[in-house]
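Quick one:
INPUT:
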């Protein structure tokens, strides 16, 4: 490739020819460094970003707390039975049971919303990663077709 470029530009002296070869070699080196960075270090940073975001969602929706207190009363809304008459004990028991049922459904709903949001993030991450991997190829193809259209061939 260097010989073809040097024939097209027709350097006037050996110094110009050497300078042109150094420029072409530096361009190839920069492209190699870019691809190593794009598919290596930065790709790992993107993966780590999505992993961190999923961990953040797990913490944001308090999944661990919801699982550990799934059948606990809602907002600690509990009535004590001590010193109550039998009809009041039954009423307190019913209200405590209702509070547990409300807590169960709120926590299940929270975990379902967490699962839906996490699934959407995973789908978005997969699409983003695929586009990340293909983006350098798309840019090269667009440049190639742009030059082809400009030159009219």
């Amino acid at each position: 490739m260097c010989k073809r470029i040097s024939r097209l530009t027709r350097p006037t002296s050996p110094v110009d020819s050497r300078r042109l070869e150094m420029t072409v070699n530096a361009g190839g080196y920069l492209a190699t460094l870019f691809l190593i960075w794009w598919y290596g270090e930065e790709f790992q940073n993107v993966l780590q970003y999505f992993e961190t975001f999923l961990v953040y969602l797990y913490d944001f929706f308090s999944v661990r707390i919801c699982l550990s207190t799934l059948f606990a009363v809602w907002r600690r809304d509990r009535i004590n039975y001590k010193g109550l008459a039998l009809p009041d004990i039954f009423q307190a028991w019913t209200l405590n049971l209702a509070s547990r049922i409300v807590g169960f459904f709120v926590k299940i709903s929270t975990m379902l919303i967490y699962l839906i949001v996490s699934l959407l993030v995973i789908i978005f991450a997969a699409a983003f990663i695929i586009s990340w991997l293909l983006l350098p190829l798309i840019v090269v193809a667009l440049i190639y077709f742009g030059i082809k259209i400009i030159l009219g061939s």
